[in-house]
From TrEMBL:
It catalyses: a 5,6-dihydrouridine in mRNA + NAD(+) = a uridine in mRNA + NADH + H(+); a 5,6-dihydrouridine in mRNA + NADP(+) = a uridine in mRNA + NADPH + H(+). Its cofactor is FMN. This is DEBR0S6_05688g1_1. One of its GO terms (biological process) is mRNA processing.
Amino acid sequence: MADYTAKFALAPMVRIGELPIRLLALKYGADLVWGPEIVDRKILTCHKVYNKKLDTVDFLSSSGNLKIPGVTNLVFRTYRKLEKGKLIFQMGTADPKLAVKAANVIADDVDGIDINAGCPKHFSIHSGMGAALLKKPDLLCEILTCLVEQVGKPHKKPISVKIRLLHEKKDTLDLVSRLVKTGISNLTLHCRTREMRNREPPIRDYVSEIYDICQKNNVSFIINGGIKKYEDYLEIQKKYGADIGCMIASAAERNVSCFSSKGLVPWSQIARDYMKIALKFDNSPPNTKYCLLRMIPGTTAIHPVLNSMREPNDLMKGLMNMMDDEGNLISSKEGKVKEHRENTEIEIPYKRRDTLSESDMADQIPEKRIRV
Ligand SMILES: Cc1cc2nc3c(=O)[nH]c(=O)nc-3n(C[C@H](O)[C@H](O)[C@H](O)COP(=O)(O)O)c2cc1C
């Protein structure tokens, strides 16, 4: 059974937290890795397949139109050889019965099941999931209790929850005091309220009191928000206690070697390592491109070239091979890349280019193909 005590963990991240990033996080020192949130109804469309070629366990959906380019029916993939004992599956739900049914589909192939009670995005809260559950503590407790009794105990898998801060300290402490009585094994606190953005500093004013409630109830405690590197993890343990765990999202999205006790590895190395793992495990090319664009700095020459590519893996792999160790495009080919860029200026139909955020850019489909 996975133990969350004092662990250094990769946070759940939609689109980012697929198998290649999770394996890289483990390689660089993460103790536990969360998968991206997947909602209960989606899991319920899935059947499990052992993928002999990749030696992975795949969950394939029977819904979705596979005729649409880029659409695959793969919902979740795990490589048990490296993830066993370390993989926490995060579920989005607002219904105890559906949650139990869905958790039973995946329980034997993951090492813990976590409920997302912190996501403030519209797609989550409009259906009562994510941070909407913070306003319905009875429902959240019922979901957790049902999961503990009907999935956790029979499958011997820990159940956990990830929450955010409420506006008032007292309300947060009251909620935590209820959640730790449901039989969960771990509570993760994103130390921001639901209105706060990730760029704002986290609020850790009463982390010690929450930690205390968790410890008294034999529930491990992980904090999340604004943690960037291994030294931060050590500092937090020194300040609050040796049994506290830490979880990283944004910093890992940019450079997953943030878990390493030896310091950050250059992004060019990470991008190459990532590409190798993505190819090895047949990661979907649009997802590979999306993740690469998050880890390659927007100021580099390679970023717009990658951004303008359609997704096939061989193009991306070619581009990765044209980088030197510092991430510069290799000079003999640079002219060629530059020439292609000039000839294939991306047209963005609806939004002015200079108003786009990085993720908007990542989602744009270029009008013209580029060959490198
Ligand atoms: C790209 C991205 C996707 C995320 N997806 C999820 C998710 O699926 N489930 C979840 O509970 N939180 C999700 N989060 C929130 C993170 O897990 C984390 O709580 C938040 O980013 C704060 O941590 P940080 O300061 O280290 O970024 C996501 C964050 C990012 C940046």
